[in-house]
Design brief:
Blueprint lengths: L2 H16 L2 H4 L19 H11 L7 H4 L7 E2 L5 E5 L4 H6 L5 H13 L8 E5 L13 H18 L3 E5 L1 H8 L5 H4 L4 E3 L2 E6 L2 H6 L4 H17 L1
Parallel strand pairs: 2-3, 2-4, 4-6
Antiparallel strand pairs: 1-3, 5-6
Bound molecules: iron/sulfur cluster (SF4).
Length: 227
Amino acid sequence: MTTKDTIHQYFKQQQALYGNELYLSNEPDPLPGPESVKEGAETHGALDEFHQSICQCLECPLGACRTNFVFGVGDPNAELLLVGEAPGEQEDLRGEPFVGRAGKMLDDILKAIHKKRGDGVYIANVLKCRPPNNRDPLPSEVEKCEPYLLEQIRQIQPKLIVALGRVAGKTLLKMDVPLKEMRDKTHDYNGTPLRVTYHPAALLRNSNFKKPTWVDFQWIRDYLQNA
Ligand code: SF4
């Protein structure tokens, strides 16, 4: 990726987080108050630094065929971390996770529990580069890429991780079972509670999944309120 592409991607991410105000204001961001900074949590700076340190990664063959590296977007102090398996076509083109119709569906679900990406929520994938034809991640790719997710988790310190879809769930939990066997249970992912629910794209394909997904997100909302 060229420097121009990197800067473009950076501003696209900032725009996703803050909207167009970023381009209109010369004022520095107000300093966050003590309540808004989670103790021990890293800031955008550390996460951005980590992003820059790995965005040229070629540790597995997917690095050679990506259009964009898809690090993740959102609040660096998020209490909720949503994780998909890997970027799809639109994500690869835009360098952002969960865009397009599935991304809009995810935003609508978050809105229903009074949340939005960039405010208490961070969104990432296990793999940072798109597998060809959207195939499932290979174990060898997960082995190389999962440490990046673990570092993101270490920096963000979410209260809860939610794996979106069976593939993300089975990849993180290392269990090859149907989604319904992973749902409705609180798992442990390296010390952080993890739930599994439907991928927003599945809801677009089959509206029968909307009701159980809503049940899951109500649970997520209540859990975060009481955590
Ligand atoms: S998928 Fe992960 S390990 Fe493979 S090249 Fe991309 S960033 Fe590196």
